[in-house]
UniProtKB/TrEMBL annotation:
<feature type="signal peptide">
    <location>
        <begin position="1"/>
        <end position="22"/>
    </location>
</feature>
<feature type="domain" description="RagB/SusD">
    <location>
        <begin position="275"/>
        <end position="545"/>
    </location>
</feature>
<dbReference type="InterPro" id="IPR011990">
    <property type="entry name" value="TPR-like_helical_dom_sf"/>
</dbReference>
<keyword id="KW-0472">Membrane</keyword>
<dbReference type="InterPro" id="IPR033985">
    <property type="entry name" value="SusD-like_N"/>
</dbReference>
<keyword id="KW-0732">Signal</keyword>
<keyword id="KW-0998">Cell outer membrane</keyword>
<dbReference type="InterPro" id="IPR012944">
    <property type="entry name" value="SusD_RagB_dom"/>
</dbReference>
<feature type="domain" description="SusD-like N-terminal">
    <location>
        <begin position="96"/>
        <end position="227"/>
    </location>
</feature>
<dbReference type="Pfam" id="PF07980">
    <property type="entry name" value="SusD_RagB"/>
</dbReference>
<dbReference type="GO" id="GO:0009279">
    <property type="term" value="C:cell outer membrane"/>
</dbReference>
<comment type="similarity">
    <text>Belongs to the SusD family.</text>
</comment>
<protein>
    <submittedName>
        <fullName>Starch-binding associating with outer membrane</fullName>
    </submittedName>
</protein>
<dbReference type="Pfam" id="PF14322">
    <property type="entry name" value="SusD-like_3"/>
</dbReference>
Length: 545
């Protein structure tokens, strides 16, 4: 095991404590007064401490899955509810019960702590004894990570304080003002462009480097940043040039020809390396996802905490590409789960789904749909299947690879399709190609014919494809905000499916499962917490909070 260390940040916005599983070998004094010379030591030609230091920055990346009190961020959208009887933190995002004193998640301080780590590295790595090539690689990785942390803040709060390369000391004034949204976007974009121009990060990674920053990750961050920046929330004037820039950024990544879609939508989420993942949060093999999300009723300890909504289920098209309410779709209300696109059964457990060689019983009174009021039962008639490994025995799970996809190629294709469609009066052939590529992998035939859709129809199709293709990958939460449709989809009732069984006959009835509320006047951006505002009175609160 590598030697651990502890760092304590002096930045008031980001008090940080970094520990490991062995004894601490560094003091709890400000890092700039103690450990810097040990970590960035000119006599250390191996750079062991530096490698650990950089690794510690990577651990601050978005880790996805059940990260918010054992619930998905998507549980704060119209795609899922939690099986818990009482309200869980993520529920508050869609019930209006959140604000400056009660944020279901608040990575403000942790992101500034991570940014501080980056700036310490940039200020001191020149003193180390490692090679110049290795120094430059660490610098580039750190700058990419810093851009990621800023983006994570930008999509929550809008404009944030930008500190550049500054490393604050105990004597510095850290009561910084917020930069504007445009300034914040420009800074992150500038970092991405500089990294692309410097061409230090590798185009491809060795097996030992999986999870590290690469050229594709920078291009993917730039693509997502510009897509957000072109969207209605960021671009109220509807500047078409922003959409054109976003389309170009996505196409730049496509044209590298470094990535492609995996043939199997299901198994790619349980492999550490594949041709579709551009950048993913790395963690040790585990069975956490299975423990939390597998349907109850088996010998194993599945809790079934994540219950997809009927709203999401209805978004999955049929194999012929039509939505269930379209003429000619072939949808059968008395047998609703047949002939759906391949992603449906790889994303959602439904009644009759064969799991551990046993059909799931999600009807009322079924062994996998427990009594109302039980925290382990489903509220919607569904459980989450996506990301789950088919491994272990009927009595026990087996540990499996679960690396959260921060960027994957399917998103890039959808980014391009959306931006290019919005940049043009009518969708061109390249938009159809991108969207058909994603749908074909899902088993949908025939492809959508060039020229068959208007711009508005294509927009609706692309948005729906993002919803089903990227479900539970922390996109829907931000998409409904940047599109400014949260006020529509999160006001009213979310739905589930109640199934009753009489003899061999099943009856399906759509029922309300949760009342949701979204205040368009203030909820598109997070409020800055009272704690952070009290630390820094120069922070201006977001509108309405």
């Amino acid at each position: 095991m590598k030697t651990p260390y502890k760092l304590i940040s002096s930045l008031a916005l980001a008090l940080l404590s970094l520990t490991s599983c062995e004894k601490d070998v560094m003091t709890q004094l400000p890092v700039e007064r103690t450990e810097i010379n040990d970590i960035f030591n000119p006599k250390d030609k191996e750079g062991t401490y530096i490698d650990e230091y950089v690794s510690s920055i990577y651990t601050q990346l978005p880790r996805g899955f059940n990260r918010i009190d054992q619930n998905y961020l998507d549980g704060g959208t119209d795609d899922a509810v939690t099986a818990n009887v009482s309200t869980v933190p993520v529920d508050k995002f869609k019930t209006g019960q959140w604000g400056p004193s009660d944020l279901p998640e608040n990575p403000w301080a942790s992101n500034y702590a991570a940014i501080r780590r980056v700036n310490i590295l940039l200020a001191n790595i020149g003193n180390s004894g490692i090679s110049e090539a290795r120094k430059n690689s660490y610098r580039a990785q750190a700058r990419f990570l810093r851009a990621m942390f800023y983006f994570e803040m930008l999509k929550r709060w809008g404009g944030i304080p930008l500190i550049g390369d500054k490393v604050f000391t105990l004597d510095d004034d850290v009561a910084l003002k917020r930069n504007t949204l445009d300034e914040s976007v420009a800074y992150i974009l500038g970092e991405c462009n500089a990294l692309i121009s410097d061409n230090i990060l590798p185009a491809t990674l060795t097996d030992a480097e999986i999870g590290r920053a690469c050229k594709g990750a920078v291009l993917a961050l730039k693509s997502r940043l510009l897509l957000y920046n072109a969207s209605p929330l960021y671009n109220p004037a509807g500047d078409v040039a922003r959409w054109q820039a976003a389309a170009t950024a996505a196409n730049d990544l496509i044209q590298t020809n470094l990535y492609s879609l995996e043939a199997n939508f299901g198994t790619m989420f349980t492999t550490r390396k594949n041709k579709e993942f551009i950048f993913a949060y790395q963690q040790g093999d585990n069975a956490t996802i299975e423990n939390l999300n597998e349907p109850p009723g088996f010998q194993r300890t599945g809790q079934g905490v994540t219950n997809p909504t009927q709203d999401l289920v209805d978004a999955f098209p049929m194999k012929n590409g039509k939505l269930i309410n379209e003429a000619g779709s072939g949808y059968i209300a008395t047998n609703p789960y047949v002939n759906r696109d391949n992603r449906f059964a790889l994303t959602i457990f439904h009644n009759g789904f064969s799991w551990l060689s046993t059909p799931l019983e999600l009807f009322v009174g079924g062994k996998n749909n427990l009594k109302p009021g039980r925290a382990s039962g489903t509220k919607t008639g569904y459980y989450l299947r996506k990301f789950m490994a088919v491994s272990g025995t009927a009595a026990a799970y087996a540990n499996a690879t679960h690396n959260f996809p921060i960027f994957r190629y399917a998103e890039t294709l959808l980014n391009y399709a959306e931006a290019q469609n919005e940049a043009l009066a009518t969708p061109d052939a390249s938009v159809y190609t991108a969207i058909n590529t994603v749908r074909t992998r899902a088993g949908i035939t025939p492809v959508i014919a060039n020229g068959s859709l208007t711009k508005t129809q294509m927009r609706d199709l692309i948005r729906n494809e993002r919803r089903v293709e990227l479900a539970f990958e922390e996109h829907r939460f931000w998409d409904i905000r940047r599109w400014k449709i949260a006020e529509t989809v999160l006001n009213g009732q979310l739905k589930g499916m109640q199934i009753t069984k009489s003899g061999t006959t099943l009856t399906y009835q759509v029922v309300p499962v949760q009342t949701v509320f979204f205040d368009a006047a203030r909820m598109y951006w997070y409020p800055i917490s009272f704690t952070d505002i009290s630390k820094n009175p120069n922070l201006k609160q977001n509108q309405g909070w």
